[in-house]
Amino acid sequence: MNQDVIFDWGYAFSLLPDLGQALVITIQATVLGMALAVTLGLLLAMGRRAPWAVLSYPVAFVIEFVRSTPLLVQIYFLFYVLPGLGLQLSPLTTGVLALGIHYAAYCAEVYRAGIEGVPRGQLEAARALNLSSWRTATGIVLPQAIPPVVPALGNYLIAMFKDTPLLSAITVVEVLQQSKIIGSATFRYTEPLTLVGVMFLVLSLVAAFGVRQLEGWLQRRGRR
């Protein structure tokens, strides 16, 4: 390989298999982390809006605490503290847990905004019909609250995808870490880092397109 060449396309293409395997780890961490975030975030949002202070206050504290501390600190905390508590998790599982908990706090606030945007008359009508709290939440509130917040949740999906390189701090070999390993072995960083940048760009655009499609589908469904 000619070291005078700024960008060697042949060398770049030869890196794709290794980077592709690491990209699978990145996508896996993002998908699993986001699944945890949207689920836990909804539970946190409902807990924060609970009429019982013994539940809403601790949930509000947890949300604000997680939002106010860096993700990297949370990753280190879970990776080094959980084993001391007798909970042995793999680095990838720990990373997914950290991503999910961190972004769940942000998703909770998005859900809360969506829920508070539901007209109060809808809740009063549900009470007049003597519907249970569960029926009111699942049949009236959430179907109206979730579609408007899908774009915000999509933004967090893309943000989480771009935060996955932080998992390299706990030995998860995601795509950026793999490019750094390749660069340190060959002393050529231009090709692997450029490919990683392109991968992040393409997948972020694909995710944004998917979120727009989901938003449109929910809007069409809501008009029926």
From TrEMBL:
Gene Ontology biological process terms from the UniProt entry: amino acid transport
CDD domains linked to this entry: TM_PBP2
Keywords tagged on the record: Amino-acid transport, Cell membrane, Membrane, Transmembrane, Transmembrane helix, Transport
Topological category with respect to the lipid bilayer: Multi-pass membrane protein
Principal subcellular localization: membrane
One GO location term (cellular component): ATP-binding cassette (ABC) transporter complex
InterPro entries assigned: AA_ABC_transptr_permease_3TM, ArtM/GltK/GlnP/TcyL/YhdX-like, Ectoine_EhuD, MetI-like, MetI-like_sf
Spans through the membrane: 20-45, 57-82, 193-214
Subcellular localization: Cell inner membrane; Cell membrane
Any GO MF annotation of the entry: transmembrane transporter activity
Keyword Transmembrane helix appears in the UniProt entry: yes
Domain ABC transmembrane type-1 residue range list: 19-211
Pfam families, per the entry: BPD_transp_1 (PF00528)
Family (UniProt): Belongs to the binding-protein-dependent transport system permease family. HisMQ subfamily.
Protein name: Putative inner membrane component of binding-protein-dependent transport system
Organism the protein comes from: Orrella dioscoreae
